[in-house]
């Protein structure tokens, strides 16, 4: 679907994590069989923690006893909850997509990072990547501290991607205290709201759509609401 129309969908209600996993797996299978379109799925989850393939038991504290799930993606522990924009990307990596080379997982992950960085720049935030650290990072101008604003975790099954990115718009920041986010103890987590930016979820979604085209070379469809379960 290179340079074509990429299907964009949105769930208006929080999506339970098991339902999201099932839907992503089904879509990845159908895209591989050329029976479904590639897509970006925008959603929020209820409060929960997910474990990547490198997650360590000692990095989970979970004082509120939120549900925990095996994600099947790369990475370590991640928090998801209201106020965090999740963008799951189901893309066929057999063919090049804009700046992303065919059958190149590193190029794909770099594309996701660049997508988030350009989206943050829309709102005057300078996002950066760090060698050896997962996610996209910003410097808090008030404190000078480097903190993570977006997490990235992917899985590729027979060259079709699933999972994706999570961007902290205005989640309850204390919920991140239930884990060592992505196994990184030395640095904190931030959000648009914590940085003093009053950005709405629709504004963030619009920026994600606009910057998608420049990185991945395809035009987002009109945002299609899903019939939420």
UniProtKB/TrEMBL annotation:
Pathway: Protein modification; protein lipoylation via endogenous pathway; protein N(6)-(lipoyl)lysine from octanoyl-[acyl-carrier-protein]: step 1/2. It comes from the Bacteria. InterPro entries: aa-tRNA-synth_II/BPL/LPL, BPL_LPL_catalytic, Octanoyltransferase, Octanoyltransferase_CS. The record marks 148 as: Lowers pKa of active site Cys. Substrate binds at residues 73-80, 151-153, 164-166. Residues 34-220 form the BPL/LPL catalytic domain. Keywords: Acyltransferase, Cytoplasm, Transferase. Its EC number is 2.3.1.181. Gene3D superfamilies: Bira Bifunctional Protein, Domain 2. It catalyses: octanoyl-[ACP] + L-lysyl-[protein] = N(6)-octanoyl-L-lysyl-[protein] + holo-[ACP] + H(+). Pfam families: LplA-B_cat (PF21948). One of its GO terms (biological process) is protein lipoylation. It is found in: Cytoplasm. It is an enzyme of class 2 (transferase). HAMAP family: LipB (MF_00013). Catalyzes the transfer of endogenously produced octanoic acid from octanoyl-acyl-carrier-protein onto the lipoyl domains of lipoate-dependent enzymes. Lipoyl-ACP can also act as a substrate although octanoyl-ACP is likely to be the physiological substrate. Belongs to the LipB family. This is Octanoyltransferase.
């Amino acid at each position: 679907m290179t340079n074509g129309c990429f299907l964009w969908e949105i769930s208006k209600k929080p999506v339970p994590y098991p339902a999201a996993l099932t839907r992503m797996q089904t879509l990845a299978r159908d895209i591989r069989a050329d029976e479904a379109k590639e897509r970006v799925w925008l959603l929020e989850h209820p409060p929960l923690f997910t474990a990547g393939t490198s997650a360590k038991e000692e990095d989970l504290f979970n004082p509120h006893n939120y549900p925990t799930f095996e994600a099947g993606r790369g990475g370590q522990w991640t928090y998801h909850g209201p106020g965090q924009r999740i963008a799951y990307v189901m893309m066929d990596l057999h063919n090049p997509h804009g700046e992303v080379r065919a059958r190149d997982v590193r190029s794909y992950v770099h594309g996701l990072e660049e997508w988030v960085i350009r989206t943050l720049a829309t709102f005057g935030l300078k996002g950066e990547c760090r060698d050896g650290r997962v996610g996209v990072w910003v410097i808090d101008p008030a404190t000078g501290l480097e903190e993570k604003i977006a997490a990235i975790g992917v899985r590729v099954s027979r060259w079709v991607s699933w999972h994706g990115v999570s961007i902290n718009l205005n989640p309850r920041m204390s919920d991140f205290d239930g884990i060592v986010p992505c196994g990184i103890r030395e640095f904190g987590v931030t959000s648009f709201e914590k940085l003093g930016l009053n950005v709405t979820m629709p504004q963030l979604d619009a920026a994600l759509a606009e910057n998608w085209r420049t990185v991945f070379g395809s035009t987002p469809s009109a945002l299609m609401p899903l019939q939420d379960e």
